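Exercise 7. Given the encoded structure of a 431-residue chain, write a plausible sequence.
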């Protein structure tokens, strides 16, 4: 099996380390990281040391550190080829992707790639068909309740068709995140620039990337989505989470806000525009997406996701309830006689039993709850390894999906255009 050399560029976000949380037989154990000296590099190095030192399936990374201010040029001069991992500052990300991609690197890069319209041309060049494979890290595709929602959406006897004429969205997705969180068993230390939307990107172009990706992946599997032809943005908005200096200091371990955000600070509180909401149509299907960032999670909770896809025969729901300890759950809510759908639901579970063993059916009033065994549940941190394995499988087999590049372009174009619309819209709730 071919072993790809691994290079990591400016790992300013912990997702760079999570991409190497597990070893892989097609990756070299020697990892070269190119970054300036500083806290971000130290944090990445510590993550890899912790992965190597853990008792359960430790990694064997042999880290080679290259320090200096011009990390991209140093990486290109080294010319090792293979795979480049990018997860850090987003304002220069697509320019870096385009240069590495042009130099022949296969790239596994964290979202968002594009934070405003300036980056779209570089994105289109990077996605040209003759360029090496470049993939964004869409971890939510590997969450079991997301998989179940996609699975049953493809069952017309159960779901029917999208309900598009009721005045409500056919697809609703909401994601709630927290600025302070625990990763790999430790409180996450974020870099100060993370709180500068000119660097990190606004909320409407950041986590919303996942929601758009899941929506198009589920609703139109294997199909190319063209922004100009298939998408119409109805409304968009952006709003701020207020971050007091004491919370900023707790999260970053820095005593003051960075200079780049001072214009957004009033009375020691930063207005961080990390929240976003979009109403749009894709091929006539109305979609409502919403991303919210809070300071800290409630006791016992973490990041949460809820989703409702409305069909003519039933609705497909993903929920996380406090009274059920925020467990991600999938339900089918039939319209009319629920008994009529029990047989086709059981048949669908049986059809997928080899790939997803242990799924079972439980009645919850008029709804059906699909019980998911623990063996099929993986954590957000584990999803990075699953996404990386899918990327490496594409390289090994040459089986890149035909729609992949077009859909990356349309996804980021949608987000950038929604951001522009949000700046021109009043900040009132949508829908």
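Solution.
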């Amino acid at each position: 099996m071919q072993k790809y050399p691994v290079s990591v560029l400016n790992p300013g976000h912990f997702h760079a380390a999570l991409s190497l949380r597990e070893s892989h037989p097609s990756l070299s154990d020697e990892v070269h990281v190119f970054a300036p000296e500083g806290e971000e590099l130290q944090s990445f190095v510590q993550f890899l040391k912790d992965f190597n030192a853990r008792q359960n399936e430790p990694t064997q990374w042999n880290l080679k550190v290259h320090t200096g201010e011009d990390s991209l040029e140093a990486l290109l001069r080294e010319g090792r080829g293979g795979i480049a991992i990018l997860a850090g500052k987003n304002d220069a990300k697509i320019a870096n992707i385009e240069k590495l991609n042009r130099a022949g690197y296969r790239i596994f890069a964290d979202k968002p790639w594009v934070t405003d319209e300036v980056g779209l041309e570089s994105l289109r060049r990077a996605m040209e068909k003759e360029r090496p494979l470049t993939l964004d890290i869409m971890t939510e595709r590997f969450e079991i309740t997301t998989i179940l929602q996609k699975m049953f959406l493809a069952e017309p006897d159960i779901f029917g068709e999208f309900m598009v004429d009721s005045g409500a969205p056919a697809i609703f997705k909401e994601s709630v995140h927290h600025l302070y969180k625990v990763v790999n068993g430790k409180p996450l230390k974020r870099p100060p620039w993370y709180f500068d939307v000119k660097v990190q990107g606004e909320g409407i172009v950041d986590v919303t990337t996942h929601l758009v990706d899941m929506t198009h992946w589920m609703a139109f599997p294997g199909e190319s989505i063209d922004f100009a032809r298939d998408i119409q943005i109805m409304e968009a908005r952006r709003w701020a989470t207020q971050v007091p200096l004491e919370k900023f200091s707790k999260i970053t371990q820095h005593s003051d806000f960075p200079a780049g955000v001072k214009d957004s600070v009033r009375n020691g509180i930063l207005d961080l525009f990390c929240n976003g909401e979009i109403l749009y149509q894709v091929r006539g299907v109305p979609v409502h997406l919403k991303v919210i960032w809070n300071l800290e999670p409630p006791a016992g909770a973490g990041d949460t996701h809820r989703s409702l896809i409305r069909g003519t025969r039933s609705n497909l729901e993903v929920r996380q309830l406090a009274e059920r300890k925020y467990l991600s759950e999938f339900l089918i809510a039939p319209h009319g006689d629920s008994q009529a759908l029990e047989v086709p639901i059981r048949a669908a579970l049986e059809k997928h039993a080899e790939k997803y063993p242990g799924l079972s059916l439980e009645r919850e009033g008029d709804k059906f709850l699909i019980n998911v065994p623990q063996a099929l549940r993986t954590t957000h941190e584990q999803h990075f390894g699953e996404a990386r394995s899918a990327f490496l499988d594409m390289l090994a087999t040459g089986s890149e999906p035909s729609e992949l590049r077009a859909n990356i372009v349309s996804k980021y174009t949608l987000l950038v255009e929604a951001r522009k619309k949000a700046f021109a819209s009043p900040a009132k709730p949508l829908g």
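Remark. The longest strand covers residues 231-244. Students should compare their own answers with the one above.
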